[in-house]
Amino acid sequence: MKKITHKIYGDSPGKTTELVCFKLGSEQAQRKVYLQAALHADEQPGILVLHHLLKLLKQAEEQGLLNAQFMVFPMVNPLGMGDIGFRQHQGRYDRASGVNFNRNWPDLCKAVEVQVAEQLTEDAQQNIQIVRSALKAWIAQQQPVNALQQQRHIVLQSAFDADYVLDLHCDNEALPHIFTVPQSATVMQDLSDWMGAAATLLAENSGGYSFDEVWSKLWIDLAKVHPDKPLPLACHSATLEYRGQFDTFDELNHEDAERLYGFLQSQGLIGGEMIRLRPEPTPAATDLAATEMTRVQQAGLLAYKVKLGDVVQQGDVLADLIALDGEGAFVERIPVLAGTDGVIISRNIHKYVWPGCSVAKIVGKQPLASRGDYLLED
Question: Residue 233 — very low, low, confident or very high, per pLDDT cuts 50/70/90?
Answer without folding.
Answer: very high
